[in-house]
Amino acid sequence: MLEAIASEVLREHEPTFSLLQPDFDRLVRPRGAGKPASGWQAVRAFLRAGNARAALLDLVIVQVDASVRVNGEVAPHLDPDAELEGLCEHVKAWIGQPVPSSVLITLPREEIETWLVAANTRRKAVENIGDPAAVLVGAGLLEVRKGGPSKDARAYEVLVQPLRRFLRDPKLLRSVPELERFCSKLRAHTRRRRPALPSH
């Protein structure tokens, strides 16, 4: 989904993409540690291993669903009054200071699927939805497999197409503040990296 958003926002620059994570084989774990981390814990392990610093890319997008802020491993490190800023600082700590200028952190307020709900349904205030995948199931847009919403990549490829059109409408985009913030960060990063024109 992030690739689709970035390719749409930066379409004039014809960006190319590399999937850095999840790649469980690259997560260093002690012998006998069991299954590798997944979800936000895999992102944390990936960043703590220095991979964001080592990536020789113009831009590294780090996405963590903000719903992790109530997780027992994360909540004690956050100021409850700091909203998403506190979580952003906590994610930066996984990378270490100084955070490379190539790193862009995005934190969907609950789950990233809220952005698909916004683009594929008439629901309002989508960023407050706690279980957007269930909403997509209820709307007939995702199947249920093994007792939960299917995360099949092909289904997401279909759902992301209306999102591309959504991104082109400033009024619609303003209705999803964290998505609008992410798009603004992408554009700002591109402007910073744009080479200066020669003076005459």
Give the helix/strand layout:
Blueprint: H1 2-9, H2 39-48, H3 51-54, E1 60-63, H4 83-95, E2 103-106, H5 113-120, H6 132-138, E3 144-145, E4 148-149, H7 153-167, H8 170-174, H9 177-193
Parallel strand pairs: 1-2
Antiparallel strand pairs: 3-4
Please give a handful of descriptors for the protein shown.
200 residues; mainly alpha; two-stranded parallel sheet; two-stranded antiparallel sheet; 44% helix; 6% strand; disordered C terminus
Would you kindly provide a written description of the structure presented here, covering whatever features stand out?
- With 200 residues, the chain is mainly α.
- It has helices spanning 2-9, 39-48, 51-54, 83-95, 113-120, 132-138, 153-167, 170-174, 177-193, and strands at 60-63, 103-106, 144-145, 148-149.
- A hairpin with a 2-residue loop joins strand 3 and strand 4 (148-149).
Q: Please give the number of β-strands.
A: 4
Helix count, per DSSP? 9
The radius of gyration over CA amounts to 18 Å
Helix content: 40-55%
> Strand-residue fraction?
5-15%
Which term fits the overall shape? globular
* Helix and strand element order: HHHEHEHHEEHHH
Give the low-pLDDT segments: 24-33, 195-200
CA distance, first residue to last residue: 43 Å
Class from helix and strand fractions:
mainly alpha
Mean pLDDT: 85
> What is the spatial order of strands in the main beta sheet?
1-2
Tell me about the biggest sheet? 2 strands, parallel
